[in-house]
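> example.struct
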C-alpha cells in the first residue's frame, strides 16, 4: 500500500491481476493482503477499490464502502445542520433569559421607587402639616410680640442690673476676702511674735575658765562628761552642740527632727508630769532646775506642747479643720511609750503639713519630720500665702520618701492609744454666758516674758472674786486660766525659776 485516497480507500496495490477464470496464478493457501495483513483468497481490482465498490471481508455487512462513505457524509452534513440549529436556539433562549432577568429587576426597581415615592409623599405631607403649625404659631406670636416688648425691656433691665450688682458684690467679696486674709495674717503674726515666738539657733560649746591651770584636753573631757549620760546601756550626749535648733518660746527642738532623746530618757526615768515639775520653796526650785537642765525629755515635751497649742490656735484663726485631733496635754508627760510618742509626733507633723498645704506651700520643699522648720516656712511670705481663701492646688505633693517618713508612725501605737481620736480631754471649760465684762484693771510690767500674762490673770481673778464669786468658781479652768497655768508650769519646769 503506497497511497490512500481522500475517500479512505487505498489507491495502489502492487498485486498482479488477470482473468477471473484463470486459477493457475492463485495458490491454494491464498495470499497476504497488504492492507489488513491477513491471508485472503479473494482480492478486488484497482478500479473497484478506487470506486469503492467492495464489501467487508467478513461478508456480514452487505453495504458497500461507497455507500457507507455517502451515508457518512450525509450524517455529517445533517449533524452540522442540527448543531447550527441548536446553537441558534440556545442563543435565542439565552437572550430570552437575560431579558426576563432584566425585566424582573426593573420591576423590583419600579416597586422600590413606588414605595420610596409613597414614603416621600408621607414625609412631605407631615412637613406640610408641621409648616402649617409653625406658620400658625409664628402668626400668633407675631400678634402677641408687640404686647411683650415692655416686659422684655423690663426683664432686660432687671438682668443688666443684677449683672452689675453681681459684679459689685464680687468685687466687694474680693475686697472682704483680702481684708479677712490680712486680718488672719495679722492675728497669726501677733500670735507668733508675742505668745509663741519661734527662732533658730546653733548651740555652742560651753566655755570653762582656764585659770585653774588644767590643760585644754582635761577641760574638753570634763565638758564632754558633763554632757554625757548612761541611757539604755550606752553613753549618749545630752544635747547636740553645733547643730541647728528651733526654739519656741524657750524650749527647743532638734533641727534634724530626731526626738529620740525623749524616748531614751523616758525609759530610764520615772514618769513625770511636765506641768508639775516646778515645786514650791527652794527645794522644789532646785529640783526642778536640776531636772530641767539634765532631762532633755522635758525640753522636747514642752516644745511639742507649745507647738501643738500654736497649731490649734492658728487653725482657729485660719478656719481650718485638721485631719488628726491632738490634745494640749498629750505631750505634758514622760509616761508615753515610744510607739505612742512617735504616733503623736507624726500626727502633729501631719497636721502641720496639712496646714501648710492649705496655705499654698510647696510640699516638695518641706521636710515632714522638721516640725518647727515647717511652721517657719508657713510664716514666710515667700513660701506660703497665709490666710488664703482660694481652692487648694494639687500640683505640689510629697515625694515617696517624705510620704513614707510621715506615714510610718501614723498607724503605730497600742489599741488604747486610739482613744484620743474621739475622746479628747476637756481642755476648754464651759464658761457661763451671764458673766459680765470684766472691769478694767491696771497691768504692771514684770521681768519675765510671761509677767504681763500672770499679772493679768491675778487681776482678773481678784476682780472676779470681788464681784462674781459664784461665777468665778465655774470659770476657774477657762481658756485664759488653762493657757496661763500651762505656760507658767512649762516655764518653771524648763528654767527652774
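> example.seq
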Amino acid at each position: 500500500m503506497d497511497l490512500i485516497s481522500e475517500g479512505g480507500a487505498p489507491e495502489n496495490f502492487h498485486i498482479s491481476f488477470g482473468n477471473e477464470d484463470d486459477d493457475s496464478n492463485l495458490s491454494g493457501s491464498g495470499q497476504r493482503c497488504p492492507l489488513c495483513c491477513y491471508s485472503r483468497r479473494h482480492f478486488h481490482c484497482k478500479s473497484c477499490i478506487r470506486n469503492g465498490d467492495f464489501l467487508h471481508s467478513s461478508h456480514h455487512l452487505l453495504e458497500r464502502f461507497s455507500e457507507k462513505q455517502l451515508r457518512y457524509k450525509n450524517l455529517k452534513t445533517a449533524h452540522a445542520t442540527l448543531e447550527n440549529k441548536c446553537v441558534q436556539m440556545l442563543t435565542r433562549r439565552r437572550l430570552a433569559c437575560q431579558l426576563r432577568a432584566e425585566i424582573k429587576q426593573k420591576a423590583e426597581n419600579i416597586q422600590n421607587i413606588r414605595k420610596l415615592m409613597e414614603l416621600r409623599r408621607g414625609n412631605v405631607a407631615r412637613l406640610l402639616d408641621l409648616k402649617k403649625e409653625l406658620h400658625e404659631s409664628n402668626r400668633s406670636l407675631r400678634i402677641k410680640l408687640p404686647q411683650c416688648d415692655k416686659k422684655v425691656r423690663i426683664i432686660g433691665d432687671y438682668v443688666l442690673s443684677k449683672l452689675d450688682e453681681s459684679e459689685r458684690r464680687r468685687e466687694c467679696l474680693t475686697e472682704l476676702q483680702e481684708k479677712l486674709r490680712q486680718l488672719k495674717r495679722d492675728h497669726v503674726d501677733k500670735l507668733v511674735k508675742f505668745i509663741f515666738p519661734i527662732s533658730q539657733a546653733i548651740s555652742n560649746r560651753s566655755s570653762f575658765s582656764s585659770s585653774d591651770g588644767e590643760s585644754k584636753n582635761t577641760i574638753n573631757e570634763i565638758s564632754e562628761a558633763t554632757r554625757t549620760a548612761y541611757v539604755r546601756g550606752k553613753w549618749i550626749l545630752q544635747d547636740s552642740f553645733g547643730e541647728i535648733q528651733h526654739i519656741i518660746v524657750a524650749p527647743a527642738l532638734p533641727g534634724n527632727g530626731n526626738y529620740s532623746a525623749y524616748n531614751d530618757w523616758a525609759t530610764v526615768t520615772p514618769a513625770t508630769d511636765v506641768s508639775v515639775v516646778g515645786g514650791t520653796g527652794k527645794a522644789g526650785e532646785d529640783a526642778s532646775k536640776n531636772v530641767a537642765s539634765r532631762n532633755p525629755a522635758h525640753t522636747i515635751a514642752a516644745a511639742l506642747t507649745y507647738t501643738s497649742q500654736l497649731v490649734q490656735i492658728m487653725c482657729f484663726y485660719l478656719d481650718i479643720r485638721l485631719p488628726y485631733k491632738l490634745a494640749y496635754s498629750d505631750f505634758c508627760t514622760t509616761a508615753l511609750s515610744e510607739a505612742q510618742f512617735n504616733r503623736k509626733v507624726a500626727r502633729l507633723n501631719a497636721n502641720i503639713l496639712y496646714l501648710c498645704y492649705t496655705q499654698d506651700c510647696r510640699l516638695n520643699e518641706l521636710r515632714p519630720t522638721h516640725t518647727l522648720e515647717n511652721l517657719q516656712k508657713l510664716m514666710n511670705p515667700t513660701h506660703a500665702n497665709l490666710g488664703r481663701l482660694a481652692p487648694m492646688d494639687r500640683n505640689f505633693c510629697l515625694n515617696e520618701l517624705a510620704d513614707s517618713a510621715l506615714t510610718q508612725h501614723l498607724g503605730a501605737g497600742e489599741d488604747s492609744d486610739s482613744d484620743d481620736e474621739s475622746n479628747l480631754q476637756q481642755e476648754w471649760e464651759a464658761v457661763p454666758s451671764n458673766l459680765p465684762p470684766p472691769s478694767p484693771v491696771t497691768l504692771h510690767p514684770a521681768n519675765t516674758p510671761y509677767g504681763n500674762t500672770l499679772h493679768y490673770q491675778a487681776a482678773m481673778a481678784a476682780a472676779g472674786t470681788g464681784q462674781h464669786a459664784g461665777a468665778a468658781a465655774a470659770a476657774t479652768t477657762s481658756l485664759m486660766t488653762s493657757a496661763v497655768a500651762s505656760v507658767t508650769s512649762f516655764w518653771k519646769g524648763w528654767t527652774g525659776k
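> remarks
Residues 434 and 471 are 9 Å apart (CA to CA).
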